[in-house]
Amino acid sequence: MRLEVRGVSAGYGAKLVLDGVEFEIPAGKIMTLVGANGSGKSTLLKVIGRLLKPRTGCVLLDGKAVHSCDTAELARKMAILPQLHHASGETTVRELVGFGRFPYRSGFGVLSARDREVIAEILRLTRLEPLQERKLSTLSGGERQRAWIAMTLAQEPGVLLLDEPTTFLDIRCQFEVIELVRDLNRRCGITVLMVLHDLNLAARCSDFIVTLKGRRIRHIGTPREILQPEILREIFEIESVVHVGADDIPYCVPTGSVKEEDNKNGDGGL
Ligand code: ADP
Predict the structure, then answer these.
(1) Whose CB has fewer CB within 10 Å in the chain, the N or C terminal residue?
(2) Angle subtended at Cα 188 by Cα 165 and Cα 142, rounded to the nearest 5 degrees
(3) From ligand 1's centre to the CA of 119, what distance in Å?
(4) How does DSSP assign 56-123, residue by residue?
(5) 258 alpha carbon to ligand 1 midpoint, in Å?
(6) Ligand 1 atom showing the smallest separation from residue 270 Cα
(7) Domains and CATH numbers, the chain
């Protein structure tokens, strides 16, 4: 599914966080949103996922405004995994994945044969079959995050929004999560928009990277186009050296923060 963000302004009370944000993600691509803390990444994901109403502008899914979609209809098209999510530690992996079938249920009915089929397929795809009867409280951080992603997939969405899905995970689990996302994107053609802090992870798994600063989108491009010292200086106020690996994927090595006197062109974030 194609996702378009058109002229979105949004904020909280008197505070304007996004002002005229405009970009689109082609169907079946992975786009990662990057920016400094407080630049509005989560706010933008919330507006796209309809958790926050924009003041102006709209979000279109295959040309249809998400804010005028019926809730169940939207949940069958788009799934969001916010930064903070919670379920009882007593919930099993299989139950959690089953929660993702809510847009297909009528009332509180039992799972249909189709629901059970989808859940089984997702447990297989996410390699959670051996853990399906385990309670969430007994899982490692990486396994738990995989279970949450599996829950969003049970919605069978065309678009998946992930807010910092690798936070608090060790480096191996971070790779596992982004490899899973990449794999699902390749196999199922899901369009993905995620927020990641780690630029090198973003470069490894994204078709496009989009940068946010000063309430607006500043750059959109391939990882090679975005991982450039001058762009990283502008967005993150860091000095860096960028290399390109043998696999053609760029990676950056931050070497320090930009000092005030060197930052005459900075606008101080928001
Ligand atoms: P990011 O995800 O890039 O770190 P956020 O979207 O979380 O940024 O926050 C952008 C700005 O909006 C910050 O200044 C933050 O303090 C503010 N903000 C976020 N959520 C709320 C809220 N619920 N109420 C008031 N201000 C908020």
Answers:
(1) C
(2) 25
(3) 34
(4) EEEEEETTEEGGGS-HHHHHHHEEEE-SS----TT-BHHHHHHHTTGGG-STTPPPPHHHHHHHHHHH
(5) 24
(6) 14
(7) 3-226 (3.40.50.300), 227-270 (no CATH)
